[in-house]
Design goal:
alpha+beta, two-stranded antiparallel ribbon
């Protein structure tokens, strides 16, 4: 079976299915681990952003109440 790939121009390449490389188990695990690390990093960044926003809001509230009291 042959897969036809068009590069966006007028050129077309025919690739034999047997020439496509398959990932071995180690490479699959490395890719899965990289995705897990990326997900974990996104969760940490989201948490840190929420903490920053809440801290800024609390600081603003403290400043506003300090000026209202004095």
């Amino acid at each position: 079976m042959v897969e036809k790939v068009q590069t966006g121009g007028t050129k077309t390449f025919d690739y034999n299915k047997s020439s496509q490389s398959k990932l071995d188990e180690r490479e699959r695990k490395e890719i899965e681990k990289a995705y897990q690390k990326a997900d974990e990093r996104k969760r940490r960044e989201k948490r840190n952003k929420i903490i920053l926003i809440v801290s800024i809001l609390l600081l603003l509230l403290i400043i506003i109440f300090a000026f209202l009291i004095f």
